[in-house]
Amino acid sequence: MSAITVPVLDARVRWSLRIVDADSEEILADRTSDLVCETASIGKVFLLIEVAARLESGALAAGQIVEIPAEHRVADSGLLYLMENQRHCVADLALLVGAVSDNLATNALIALCGLDAVRAVATTLGYRDTSLLDYIRNERREGMPWTPSYGTGAELADLMRRLGAGLIVSPAVSAQVMAWLAVDTDTSMVASAFLLDPLAHTEPEYEGMVLRHKTGTTSVTRVDVGHVRGPRAAVAYAVCANWRGEEDDLRAPVLAAMRELGEQIRLVVTGRARDVDALA
């Protein structure tokens, strides 16, 4: 398979990225992929793995109503904190995490499973430099973990490849996690190049692509990890960008580079060059 050319990346940004052929495991692109980055909400994937595993074992029931501990109430990302009814079942909370990276649903499920158990998921899967570390917080004060989650491009690309192959815990657990990730509405990063309907792409959509992904965002972070299959090939990818400590907000050059990488991924999985004139 043809390699993907990494575009010129802004040197002020801390990058960790890897793109692999999801079937052969061939590395198609790599840039400092062992560098550890803040990954914002990406660690929620490990929470979804724990929840799916407990549903499969019977330790949790999909319809079980979850109470939200008062000390873990948060706002910002998501919908649950805006809803009149905030008592929902395990399956619906997991769906909210997959769809809108819901912070309140995340904290409810972490509290249900136990933070230590969720933290242990990544280690159990063999990852050394990638994990969910903490609850989502309204503010991160001294003495708290430095970030809600962290990771490397290499390990996150491998995670998405293994999920796509049904190799995380079991085929059923992998499939359930991918089903939750299928409804992710944030296609602003790498996935922006796929031109999918952000609200409806659970089935093959534009140019026959099927996307399963998770994004993470803070004021100094953009991360997109995913698995995309088209009529020609399948790719697993992880692109992490941090610019903490910089005076400028660098989201514009970061998102431009992510979209350029996404465009090359689209070409690999579909085999179709884009008609630039038709887009003008």
From TrEMBL:
Residues 21-239 form the Beta-lactamase class A catalytic domain. InterPro entries: Beta-lactam/transpept-like, Beta-lactam_cat, Beta-lactam_class-A. GO terms for molecular function: hydrolase activity. It holds the Pfam family Beta-lactamase2. The keyword Hydrolase applies. Keywords: Hydrolase. This is Serine hydrolase. It comes from Microbacterium flavum.
